[in-house]
């Protein structure tokens, strides 16, 4: 059995066998540290919320139920996920494509600092009960303007760290003409592109609508438009969580079981489909509201369900990998 | 791109099921009218007193049909109670005077979002007498859990 899996390892050799450069590992490590700090704080919020809702404890007067619900949602759904994904992608890019250049690494750090500054601003406002608006922050519920600035720093910071990962992948392709690029880079590129495109929606509503309004420069806000822009981001957000998990299934699982991926081209197709069909799907979070016609709700429902296709491809690929390895 | 024979079968079956599912959904929505509340009228939420919502309440349209114009606000509905006889069909027209709310009658199909600046609409026929509770299921502020109204369906 051991012999067989060692043999399979040898056959699967186009991934360069290099470790994570310690300088890149440091940034990835900090991403993971913040991810789990947010996770701990977030689950504490969830625990208090559950105990209070179940009538087992009474929250002190200075701590609001919706305040800890907001902390729970933002820290787990936005902060934990984004940080752990960035740590994973950054370390993986260094592992599969070689160390980042000092300039790219510096850009990575700048993005990390911006993101963390934004996270800090939003977290402080939530803990100060100035932003108990849940992680959906639907207008016209209003939070302190520092919360909205925090969101902008968070999103823009992730874009800034995303760029060195994209550049690193395309530089590798340029310096290795004719060689198949490691799948990790292809999948990271698709994931980062999806995140940047999705982030445009939330950035547009926060910068264009919510900040002027929270600062008192405008006294009205188009609520349905802001909800549509939020969900233009909010649904692709879940694909942004899924894709790194799929990367583990496609790339890590075959290594763990000592086999090789069933088909790299199908894996790439699945990621391209995720990217394309993440864009026009947000209306399915607004099915019960006025101001959006039934026709467009149906169109976006169809496009939402197309996600079945890359999911079926992935399911087949995973089981085919297991079966193929089992027969070797 | 090479596709394994089993994969072709798997994908054909999967995509075929998807097409069938979406066709059933489309036929039920557009041929049988099973559509979600999607009313397109807008209203100036800061001047509701100058709109059809100036005097919210129930009005009778014909023998068994009533129109209920309601305003959702933090943390209640105006009016807080309405009354209709059993067997009536009520057309609900709802808007919000402040933030995003919802309007849900547990145990029925009535469940819609209420966004300021828009009017949402649905209808329901009350075939059983009794007191129906209406709840807001969209977080609307610190008193969200208290937001409710009642519909008295008299025998």
Tell me about this structure.
The complex is a heterodimer of chains A (328) and B (155). Chain A is an all-alpha fold and 328 residues long. Chain A has one domain: Cytochrome c oxidase-like, subunit I domain (Cytochrome C Oxidase, Chain A). Chain A is globular and about 60 Å long. Chain A starts with a helix and ends with a helix. Chain B folds into 2 domains: 35 residues; 110 residues, Sandwich (Immunoglobulin-like), CATH 2.60.40. Chain B is 17% helix and 36% strand. Chain B is built from 1 helix and 10 strands, in the order αββββββββββ. In chain B, the strands form 3 sheets. In chain B, strands 1, 2, 3, 5 and 8 form a 5-stranded mixed sheet that branches. Chains A and B meet through α7, α8, α9 and α10 of A and α1 and β7 of B.
Largest interface: A-B, 39 and 46 residues
CATH topology of the largest domain in chain B: Immunoglobulin-like
CATH architecture classification name of chain A: Up-down Bundle
Arithmetic mean pLDDT of chain B: 94
Series of secondary-structure elements of chain A, N-terminal to C-terminal: HHHHHHHHHH
Report the total helices of chain A: 10
CATH superfamily of chain A: Cytochrome c oxidase-like, subunit I domain
| Rg result of chain A | 22 Å
Range of strand content of chain B:
35-45%
Unreliable spans of chain B? none
CATH class call of chain A:
Mainly Alpha
Features:
heterodimer, A: 328 residues, mainly alpha, Cytochrome C Oxidase, Chain A, 0% strand, globular, disordered N terminus, B: 155 residues, alpha+beta, Immunoglobulin-like, five-stranded mixed sheet, 1 helix, elongated, cytochrome-c oxidase activity (chain B), metal-binding (chain B), Cytochrome aa3 subunit 2 (chain B)
């Amino acid at each position: 059995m051991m012999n067989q899996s060692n043999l399979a390892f040898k056959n699967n050799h186009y991934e360069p066998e290099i470790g994570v450069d310690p300088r890149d590992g440091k940034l990835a490590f900090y991403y993971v540290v913040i991810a789990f700090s947010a996770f701990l704080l977030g689950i504490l919020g969830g625990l208090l919320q559950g105990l209070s809702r179940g009538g087992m404890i009474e929250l002190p007067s200075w701590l609001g139920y919706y305040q800890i619900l907001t902390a729970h949602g933002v820290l787990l759904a936005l902060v934990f996920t984004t940080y752990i994904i960035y740590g994973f992608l950054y370390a993986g890019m260094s592992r599969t494509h070689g160390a980042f250049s000092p300039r790219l690494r510096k850009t990575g750090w700048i993005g990390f600092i911006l993101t963390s500054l934004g996270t800090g601003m939003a977290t402080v406002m939530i803990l100060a009960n100035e932003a108990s608006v849940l992680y959906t922050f639907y207008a016209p519920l209003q939070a302190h303007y520092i919360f909205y600035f925090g969101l902008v720093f968070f999103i823009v910071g992730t874009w800034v760290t995303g760029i060195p990962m994209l550049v690193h992948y395309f530089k590798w392709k340029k310096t290795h003409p004719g060689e198949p690029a490691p799948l990790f880079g292809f999948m990271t590129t698709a994931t980062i592109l999806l995140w940047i495109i999705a982030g445009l929606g939330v950035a547009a509503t926060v910068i264009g609508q919510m900040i002027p309004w929270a600062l008192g420069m405008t006294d009205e806000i188009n609520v349905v438009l802001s909800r549509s822009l939020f969900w233009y981001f909010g649904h692709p957000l879940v694909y942004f969580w899924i894709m790194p998990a799929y990367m583990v299934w496609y790339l890590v699982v075959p290594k763990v079981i000592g086999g090789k991926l069933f088909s790299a081209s199908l894996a790439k197709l699945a990621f391209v489909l995720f990217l394309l069909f993440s864009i026009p799907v947000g209306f399915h979070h607004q099915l019960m509201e006025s101001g959006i016609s039934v026709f467009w709700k149906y169109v976006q429902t169809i496009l939402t369900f197309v996600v079945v296709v890359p999911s079926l491809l992935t399911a087949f690929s995973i089981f085919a990998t297991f079966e193929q390895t089992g027969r070797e | 791109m090479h596709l394994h024979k089993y994969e072709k079968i798997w994908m054909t079956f999967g995509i075929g099921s998807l097409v069938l599912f979406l066709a059933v959904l489309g036929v039920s929505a557009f041929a049988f009218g099973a559509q979600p509340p999607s009313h397109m009228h807008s209203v100036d939420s800061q001047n509701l007193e100058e709109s059809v919502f100036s005097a919210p309440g129930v009005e009778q349209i014909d023998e068994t049909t009533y129109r209920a114009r309601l305003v959702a606000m933090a943390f209640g509905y105006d009016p807080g109670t309405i009354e209709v006889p059993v067997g009536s069909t009520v057309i609900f027209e709802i808007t919000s005077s402040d933030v995003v709310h919802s309007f849900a009658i547990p145990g029925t199909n009535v469940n819609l979002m209420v966004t300021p600046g828009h009017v949402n609409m649905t209808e329901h026929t009350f075939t059983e007498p009794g007191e129906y509770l209406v709840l807001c299921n969209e977080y609307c502020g610190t008193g969200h859990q208290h937001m409710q109204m009642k519909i008295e369906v008299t025998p």
